[in-house]
Amino acid sequence: MRVFSGIQPTGAMHIGNYLGAIKQWVAMQTTGSVYCVVDLHALTLETEPALRREQTLDAFASLLAAGLDPSVGPVFLQSRVPYHAQMNWLLECVTSFGELGRMTQFKEKAERQVGHRVGLFTYPVLMAGDILLYETNQVPVGDDQRQHIELAREIAIRFNNRYGDTFVVPEAVLPAVGARIMDLQEPTRKMSKSVSSPLGTVYMFDGPADVEKKIMKAVTDTDGEVRYDPDAKPGLSNLLEIFSALSFESPVDIAARYQRYGDLKRDVADALNAELAPLSRRYRELRSEEGEIERVIDEGTATAAAIAAPVYHRAAHAMGLL
Ligand code: AQP
């Protein structure tokens, strides 16, 4: 069983990344899992090169601090394995323009970007290649990536039908709760790394006072009833989901224990701080050991490339490349 997933080094990781994806990665990590920092994807966003390098090291330190163990399975850097860029081209030639135009994340991100980059449009194909290169069965992701995994499946099936059995067809694995953590100030929009919302985003390595301040100021509603109802009460339901993802109790059961929003918020802040404080300590230690991070990247990349090489060559051969 192969589990594969990736994360962009586009800024500090937030609790949406953690509860929607990284916590699952840690729980699902076995010798068959392959995880990566997808720095090629991050090129779709304008960033100073020096900052990009720092953000890449931050991303590795975040994954290791969250509990990924590189001695169990590789944790590698996408741009160091050239088969990703090569596979991207093969797959762009079996994907239609119309399919990519339907991607909702492209439509949302294109609205925020001035001077649209072609990469923002084609990035789901690069992502399909990331997944298919590792003969992936399961891809643990948050809800915003569901459509991209569906595209990867369609590309794999089409390729297999046209050129013979080449790829394993992957499936998305979403967490039961926490698959779409919303911004605390604008709870109808997902929490996001690349959208500035200082009070609406709780970062994995925020200090306890910041976590408490952001949760206590989270936008809710005025009807005063603690009830799980994402449509009618998105802000309160988001807090219940965060609590549920940490406590493994259902949001409905948690809601039944509270009469006052303030009491719920205080307990959500305490639960988050209890989970995040040890991760923050590990992160600070790891981030000061850049040599160790480089070693993880080098080792992970060598292991990943050895898995990806035969799959790339099989696909290239199937398409008739000599
Ligand atoms: N708000 C969220 N709730 C649950 N899961 C989320 N993920 C992202 N936001 C939430 C999941 O985190 C993983 C890594 O995400 P990514 O780095 O590939 O980028 P993204 O999906 O585009 O998320 P961001 O944080 O908003 O980054 P930017 O702003 O850079 O694009 C994925 O599994 C994702 O589902």
Shape: globular
Task: Return the structural class.
Answer: mainly alpha
Count of discrete domains: 2
| Helix/strand order | EHEHHEHHHHEHEHHHHH
Q: Strands across the major sheet, in which order?
A: 1-2-3
The largest sheet, given as strand count, sense and whether it forms a barrel, is: 3 strands, parallel
Helix content: 55-70%
Averaging pLDDT over every residue, what do you get?
96
CATH H-level superfamily title of the largest domain: HUPs
Report the end-to-end length measured between terminal Cα atoms: 31 Å
What portion of residues belong to β-strands? 5-15%
Annotated CATH architecture of the largest domain? 3-Layer(aba) Sandwich
Q: What compounds sit in this structure?
A: adenosine-5'-tetraphosphate
Q: CATH topology of the largest domain, anyone?
A: Rossmann fold
Low-confidence stretches: none
What is the CATH domain class of the largest domain? Alpha Beta
Q: How many β-strands, per DSSP?
A: 5
Individual helix count: 13
Instruction: Calculate Rg over CA atoms.
Output: 20 Å
